[in-house]
Structure formats: structure tokens, C-alpha cells
Write a structure and sequence with these properties.
It is a single chain. The chain contains 13 helices and 18 strands. The protein is α/β, with parallel strands linked by helices and 465 residues long. It folds into 3 domains: 82 residues, no CATH class; 183 residues, 3-Layer(aba) Sandwich (Leucine Aminopeptidase, subunit E, domain 1); 144 residues, Sulfate adenylyltransferase. The strands form 5 sheets. Strands 7-12-11-8-10-9 form a 6-stranded mixed β-sheet, with helices on both faces. The longest helix is centred in the N-terminal third of the chain and has 20 residues.
């Protein structure tokens, strides 16, 4: 049925089949194995075909596959020339026509651009890849930095954490908006007066968050980037996009899924902002983390006393507010597998859910779940705390100074325990992508001091703050 109905192009055999010739069951089989069938008779679809072909051959070449159509002796210049699309795209003169997009309209930018294909107009070559530079994207002096966000009001991992660290207003503006929808774009100015314009664009390219499946919504991301392109053109600003946008935590569960996500996202970037620059992080040596992470997102227990800090959890108190000690009902070195002088991680997340569950069981007030955080700290000395020390008012005060709890919490939590251990810690900074990032500037004392009721967070002697 398909004999003599195929052509070979750039190492790929393409079968041209009338859709009506294929039984519906065969069509479904092809779709499940290879993806949806495409109509290469359409100019835009054929362009997509060529882009996929380019990515395939670049991958074959980079992995030194026997299927590669280029030898390793070919210069980089000729590699790039060979991998360019072998046919120009026909576009209309009306390249800058502005129309209202069909999907995902928002109140930030309500326009996008379209490109029409007609056979009787000028010829313009569309790039197959965006230019790439290697540098810290946070060091970009001016332009628009793009980051993908979700619609659930959660921001705090990966690049988002580093951006929020340097420009807290980006996260604050994101949290201030309560009606996030897919493809919404929020432009936050982070440059100072009389400085070159620098903007962070929060693009809602995913509705939810999590790592169990791909969260990136390709159509939403494409619509959002179209708005970024229009805004950049109107304001004459370059656009910078982080390498693997939407393909890290939101890219899928496995490395293969993440790579597939990035392959499609690269196509979307070419289609929407062909002159955007993709910024790849410089290779840095990560820190050596020892042992298991230690849960630390429990509430500061004030027993009705005024909390002098502008934060109310243990992990936040480590982030520039003087918390340098933790107490456990087991030996920390043995439980977590680290020793004095090691660098270890304190984390929130699962610990917060455990603490909330524990508090609810005891009739306490549940803790509001925030973003997962990781704090790197240098492990100090561990020592055993006796019942005599627990009953000593002088030690209670010293303990409260280090822990940032009320002094009353020590005796309430640990009186009668078979063993109690203290661990000194030296917080070093937030742990972001395996790197230690300096803590944000500490907030001033709360303008309206909050009174926190006593809360007990003990769960089977395994998670003591």
C-alpha cells in the first residue's frame, strides 16, 4: 500500500499516505507509538516537521550515533549550515498585524501576533534554533527575563527561588494576584530609576505543580510567550529565556519526559520569539551534602508570649533570624548520618504536613502550608540534655535564645523523655539547585506583633523541633 509513496530527507524516511487508506485501528496504533499524524501538505506543519528533523539529527550527531549523517570531522560551521531548514518560509508582508488571540485572553496583554503564509509574497528564513549564551540569567543588565509560574500561588523552587531572592517584589506581585489563569503574563519591573529597564515576566505556562507528571501546558506557554514577544517589540526590549524553561520540575517524572518537554518548548520559543536568547547556566561545582535532610518546618512555640520575630516557623527562623539549635528525642548524628563539620540540609514540605497532622490530632491549629524550602547548615556539636538541665531556668533561657521558642516549650516538650539531644547548627544560606544562596535581607520586626498560642508538634518521638 505504501510502496513508492515515501521520500527520504536528512536521514529520515517519510511515508506519504492518504488518511482514508488507513483503517481507524491502524491510525490509533500509529498515534500511540509515534504521536499524532500530521499533514505535511500545510506549510506551517511542514516547518514543524523540519524542526523536529533538525532536533533528531542534532541528537544523533551529539551522541555519535551510527545513524548520524555527518562525520565527526565536519566543522561546527558546516554542522550549523547543514542543520538549517532546507526550504525558506513564505510569509506575508503584514508581519506585524496585531489580533486578539483566540485562547487565554488576559488583562495584561490582550494582543498577539500572527504570521500568514502565502505563495506570492516575500521570502524570509525562519531560524531553527534560538541563540544561546552561557551566563547567570540574574546578571542580565536589561531586557525581559522570562520564568514559568503555576496558577496555584506557589513559588519557591529552582530559578523562581533565586529570582525571589534577588528581587522579592517578583514573588510578592505573583502572590498578590489571586486569579491566575493559564497563559496569563505578569510583567514586574525590577530595575531602579535611571537604570536600564529590566523586567521579569511571570508566564503562567502550567496550571498546577508537582513532579509526578508533566505540568507544562504547551498551548498556554505558547500563548503567554506570544504576549511577551508583543510586549518586547512595543518596548524595544530583548528577551532572555532560561535553558530548559518549563522542563525541570514541571517537565515530567523522568529524564526522558523532561527532554521531550524541552524539545517541544524549544520549538515553541522559535515559533513565538525567534530572536529571544536562551541563557544557559555556567557549570558550577555543587556543594557536598552529607547525611539525610532534617525536617525543620515546625511552628515557633510562643506559649502566648509575643513573638519578637517577623517569622513564625523554625526553618524561617534559621534564615537570618538567629536560630542555631535544634532539639531531638534521638541522637542526631546517628539518625541523620552526619557529623560535626559536615554540610547538611534542613527542609520544609513533608515535615510541615506531618506537623500539621500532629497538631490536628492534638486539637491544635493547623499550620498554613508554604513553599518547600531548603536551608544549608554546617553541623555543630551534639550533646545530651539531661532532665536536670530541662528543669533549670537558666538553661531554659539559654535554650530559648538559641531555638527562638518560648522557654516554657522546653519543659513541656521534653520532660520525662528517655533521651533528649541538642544539636548546634550554623545556617549558611538557602540551598537552590545544589548551590548555597545568600539569605534574603531580614525583615524588620512585625509592625503588628502576633501572639502565637502554644502548639505542640510531637509525633512518636521522631519529629521534635
Amino acid at each position: 500500500m505504501v510502496e513508492n509513496q515515501y521520500f527520504t530527507d536528512h536521514n529520515c524516511a517519510t511515508f506519504v499516505i492518504e488518511k482514508s487508506q488507513l483503517h481507524e485501528g491502524i491510525q490509533q496504533g500509529f498515534s500511540s507509538l509515534l504521536g499524532e499524524l500530521i499533514n505535511v501538505g500545510e506549510v506551517e506543519v511542514y516547518n514543524l516537521y523540519e524542526q523536529k528533523l533538525t532536533l533528531l539529527n542534532e541528537a544523533l550527531y551529539s551522541t555519535d550515533s551510527k545513524l548520524s549523517i555527518l562525520s565527526k570531522g565536519v566543522s561546527e560551521y558546516h554542522q550549523r549550515i547543514y542543520f538549517l531548514p532546507n526550504r525558506p518560509q513564505i510569509v506575508s508582508e503584514d508581519l506585524n498585524k496585531v489580533v486578539k488571540p483566540d485562547l487565554y485572553s488576559t488583562d495584561v496583554l490582550k494582543t498577539g501576533s500572527t504570521v500568514k503564509s502565502t505563495p506570492d509574497k516575500q521570502v524570509a528564513a525562519q531560524p531553527s534554533v534560538n541563540p544561546t549564551i552561557t551566563q547567570d540569567i540574574l546578571a542580565v543588565p536589561s531586557g525581559i527575563i522570562v520564568q514559568q509560574v503555576n496558577c496555584q500561588g506557589k513559588m519557591g523552587a529552582g530559578l523562581a527561588a533565586a529570582i525571589a531572592q534577588k528581587w522579592p517584589e517578583v514573588k510578592q506581585e505573583y502572590l498578590n494576584k489571586k486569579d491566575w489563569q493559564l497563559a496569563f503574563v505578569q510583567f514586574v519591573h525590577v530595575s531602579q530609576p535611571r537604570e536600564p529597564t529590566l523586567i521579569v515576566a511571570n508566564v503562567a505556562g502550567q496550571y498546577n505543580y508537582g513532579t509526578d507528571k508533566r505540568q507544562t501546558d504547551f498551548e498556554a506557554l505558547k500563548a503567554g510567550l506570544t504576549k511577551v514577544a508583543q510586549y518586547a517589540k512595543e518596548n524595544n526590549l530583548p528577551v532572555y529565556i532560561p535553558d530548559h524553561l518549563g522542563s525541570g520540575l514541571a517537565g515530567g517524572r523522568t529524564l526522558i519526559e523532561k527532554d521531550q518537554t524541552w524539545a517541544r518548548v524549544k520549538e515553541i520559543i522559535v515559533e513565538t520569539i525567534p530572536d529571544a536568547t536562551i541563557v544557559s547556566k555556567p557549570q558550577e561545582q555543587g556543594i557536598a551534602i552529607s547525611g539525610k535532610p532534617i525536617p525543620m518546618n515546625y511552628p515557633l512555640m510562643m506559649h502566648g508570649e509575643t513573638n519578637p520575630l517577623p517569622v513564625d516557623t523554625c526553618i524561617d527562623a534559621m534564615r537570618g533570624y538567629g536560630r542555631t539549635h535544634t532539639t531531638r528525642a534521638y541522637e542526631p548524628y546517628k539518625q541523620y548520618g552526619f557529623k560535626e563539620g559536615d554540610i547538611a540540609i534542613a527542609y520544609s514540605g513533608a515535615s510541615l504536613r506531618d506537623a500539621t497532622s500532629s497538631l490536628l490530632k492534638r486539637g491544635g491549629t493547623p499550620i498554613a502550608q508554604g513553599d518547600d524550602q531548603q536551608v544549608a547548615f554546617r553541623v555543630g556539636k551534639q550533646y545530651q540534655i539531661t532532665q536536670e538541665m530541662i528543669a533549670d531556668p537558666a538553661y531554659q533561657q539559654q535554650w530559648a535564645l538559641l531555638e527562638k521558642h518560648s522557654a516554657k516549650a522546653l519543659s513541656e516538650l521534653f520532660t520525662g523523655k528517655q533521651q533528649v539531644w541538642g544539636l548546634h547548627m550554623e545556617p549558611l544560606g538557602d540551598c537552590v539547585d545544589g548551590k548555597i544562596v545568600q539569605f534574603p535581607e531580614p525583615l524588620s520586626t512585625k509592625t503588628q506583633q502576633a501572639t502565637t498560642t502554644t502548639q505542640k508538634a510531637v509525633e512518636n518521638d521522631e519529629a521534635i523541633p
